[in-house]
Hints:
Blueprint: H1 2-8, E1 16-21, E2 27-33, H2 36-41, H3 48-52, H4 54-62, E3 65-70, H5 74-88, H6 91-94, E4 103-108, E5 115-119, E6 128-135, H7 138-151, H8 167-170, H9 184-198, H10 202-218, H11 222-236, E7 262-271, E8 274-284, E9 287-288, E10 294-297, H12 305-317, E11 327-331, H13 334-346, E12 353-358, E13 364-369, H14 371-376, H15 378-399
Parallel strand pairs: 7-11, 11-12
Antiparallel strand pairs: 1-2, 1-3, 4-5, 4-6, 7-8, 8-9, 8-10, 12-13
Amino acid sequence: MSNIREQIKKLPDSPGVYFFKDEKGTILYIGKATSLRDRVRSYFSADIMATRGPLIAQMLELATRVDYEKTDSVLEALILEAELIRKFKPNHNTDLKDDKSFNFVVVTKDEFPRVLLVRERILHASDYLYFFGPFTNGQQLKEAMKIVRKIFPYRDTCMPHSGKECFNAQIGLCPGVCAGKISKKEYARIIRNIVLFFRGKKKNLVSKLMREMKAFAKAEEFEKASEHKKTLFALSHIHDVSLLKRENIYGDLIGARIKNTRIECYDIAHLSGTDTVGAMSVVENGEANKSQYRKFKIKSEGPNDTKHLSEVLERRLAHNEWPMPNIIAVDGGIAQVNAMKNILIKYGIVIPVVGVVKDEHHRAKMIIGDRESARVHEKDILLADQEAHRFAIGYHKYLRGKI
């Protein structure tokens, strides 16, 4: 154990996959991390039994060393983790899943293959052209696929050559298989790119795209060359729109209270659309961190809280130097929650969002949105909301010259 503690000091503060091994070099457990150093260090807290469960505690008793493999992004760490779990099948990974039903990404054998998510219990490998997994967290995988699909648009449910663009094609998530906008050969190229990415062969993929881009440019097919250039840019900047920039609420055991939790809450204050301001409060580990509060003078006009909240969150996300939250809360209902989700989707960031709904006396009535976050962190969310409202009102009054 002391040997591992020494190794932790040498771990990088970057995304990747870590391996706990026993004295024979057998891999006991594989995990992914936003920060390899912070994630592995978290296993050696005094309350490991309560936070991670008996199986992880047992694994740590057997472990004598920890190795790692760095990745350029959390998304790639998620994919590499699944590939390595499939390859090595560590006992302490598979035992953590009670229902033994992991999630897989599959590519169908259709003329224009579909890319789908399936559960292990209904997976028949021979039915598919390719399959990747297991992925141990279904919700996290769904969010990751949103990022992948922005880089490599693919078909899931639409019918080829139906003559009408599906909704996903209209928003750039399907290459237009439905409307006949892409040939079978061109679409097969996209599928090959997805396969390379899920096999962890990013370097090969980048080299392939570079060759194709140069060939298109030489042939004066500048539109196709430009598309490849955009894809290459997206691949090289995954770390800017990564799945998470800090460990999120989904850990080894969903439902456990996360240590080092940062909750950011947002609220808007105005008087009939004038002197509109936004405020951000921060609650870390159950306590308000007022030094991290931020205020925003709204630039857009009119009494539109959802529009103003979107502006505030976009401006906040521009500050890469600020720590990213584990949970985002907003003072408001479903419209406000959806506004925040849409901005996160736009930037490819996956963070649970909750909303604090008030009664006619402006008292908290319920928390909507991500149920697990609301259940585990209710007290902290309500504190963050109370602070955001107080801070927003205070700044609004200041601008109006009332204080």
